[in-house]
Specification:
Helix content is 16%, strand content 36%. It is an alpha+beta fold. It has 2 domains: 2-47, N-terminal domain of TfIIb (Single Sheet); 54-115, CPE0013-like fold (Roll). The strands form 3 sheets. A 5-stranded mixed sheet has the order 8-5-6-10-9, with no helix packed on it. The protein is elongated.
Length: 128
Amino acid sequence: MRKTHSFTCINCPLSCSLELVEEDGEILEVKGNDCEIGRRYAEEEFRDPRRMVTTTVKVRNGILPLLPVVSTKPIPKPLVKEAVRSLAGVVLEAPVEDGQVIVADILNTGADIVASRRLDRLHSAGND
């Protein structure tokens, strides 16, 4: 049975409205793309949609209470919410280095979750 799937390309500011036509899992046609990148985007979204994970984790004794983290590569889109939920319980101790691995191989995806900035320890008077 022939089906049409709609996507909005996110690879450039044009945000092309894409339509992918498939039958029994075989891609027949991609329409609406202004470039080859848009066609590939639609095909990837249909076959294996992936996303980068970006969120924050808690930090004790840091100059900020939250640390931004990011995945080292995109993970399967259906696992993104589970990955973010699993990071909700992570509490780090400052200092944290930019690029420091926070969680290795999250959900067995091959992607690590790393700090996306340095976060120094909070120094209070008389505690140095």
